Amino acid sequence: MEPDPRYQKMATHIGLGQSQRIADLFAMVADSDEADLLLALPADVPGAAAKLDREPDQVQAMIDRLFIKGLVFPSRKTDPPTWRMCRNLVQFHDATLLWPEAPQEYYDLWREFMDEEWYEIAKEWGAEVTKPFTRVIPVGVSIEARTSILDFESVAEMISKARSLAVTKCTCRLSMRKCDRPLEVCLQVDNAADYNLARGTGRSLSKQEAMDILKEAEEAGLVHVTMNRHQGNHFICNCCPCCCQTMPVLIEGGIRVVDPSRFVATVEAEECISCGVCAERCYFSAISFPEGEDGPSLVDPERCMGCGLCLVTCPTGAITLSEAREKSFVPGAA
């Protein structure tokens, strides 16, 4: 049977028309009528109904289903709202993998795509972008900086100032299943929280509950990652080195699809007892023992991502995070 060209068009819409797996993923989540509607977007419901020669009630029912599936997103700047398709691979991945009725085969095909195709795609994207879409933010501990830590790089401040909070399952670990680290740890903030609560794919959180999840993530060795800009941070992901979209390609190939934080770890040699816990906790091979196993650890600032996981479990408090980059390193920061 010839592949349905509608699904290839949808793959092309998110920049991956060359991938049959992406087309097949669209085919698994959208039936033929829904595919026609998706290709008629952007449009409001009356406009889409006119394009498809359908009743508006029929189109609204399809829009409602596609919203739950994670394939359409509303712009409420218009009345009635204008609906659009997911605009890129990340949005397609993160939204549809939380679809409550996703079959196991859907997760399996995503894992196959990530294992077989993602590395080369990430390499191309990494070479094209001037700044990655995401960046690391440090653990929720005190930071020794030349200037005070800024609100957009403090998980505690981001939580404190949030209007709405929710938690979702990590879509990467849902599909990849390469570790047993905590699953329900992706924090959604403000508009992203509203979106996931409306879809039924997120659980509402108090601010204390959100901080407790961040602490759990830090202890489990998960790296905090957020949007790479100084305002409007809609999520705090908690990433592992094996399932995440960004961490494995960074660790294995040096592909910078995620920026470091503005900080690097430093070790107070006199306080270090050479236990090696910090080196075990570092995914980026940034910590070594140049003087041998009895000497203090040393941090390579070129490799350090400034996540702070090493200092969470340092038994003597020998490790601190120090400012290493100007605040202008984060897009939009003055």
What's this entry about, in short?
Helix content is 40%, strand content 14%.
Key terms for this structure?
334 residues; alpha+beta; Arc Repressor Mutant, subunit A; Alpha-Beta Plaits; 7-stranded mixed sheet; two-stranded antiparallel ribbon; 40% helix; elongated
Describe this structure in words.
The protein has 334 residues and is an alpha+beta fold. The protein has two domains: 5-96, Arc Repressor Mutant, subunit A; 125-329, Alpha-Beta Plaits, CATH 3.30.70. Helix content is 40%, strand content 14%. The protein contains 14 helices and 13 strands. It has helices at residues 5-13, 20-29, 32-40, 45-52, 56-69, 89-96, 104-128, 155-160, 171-176, 191-199, 207-219, 247-253, 277-281, 309-312; strands at residues 72-75, 82-85, 134-136, 165-168, 186-189, 203-204, 223-227, 235-239, 258-259, 263-267, 287-288, 298-299, 319-323. The strands form four sheets. The protein has a seven-stranded mixed beta sheet. A two-stranded antiparallel ribbon has the order 1-2. Strands 10-13 form a two-stranded antiparallel ribbon. Strand 7 (223-227) and strand 8 form a beta hairpin. It is elongated, with a radius of gyration of 22 Å. The termini are far apart. The relative contact order is 0.11. Residues 144-149 have low confidence and may be disordered.
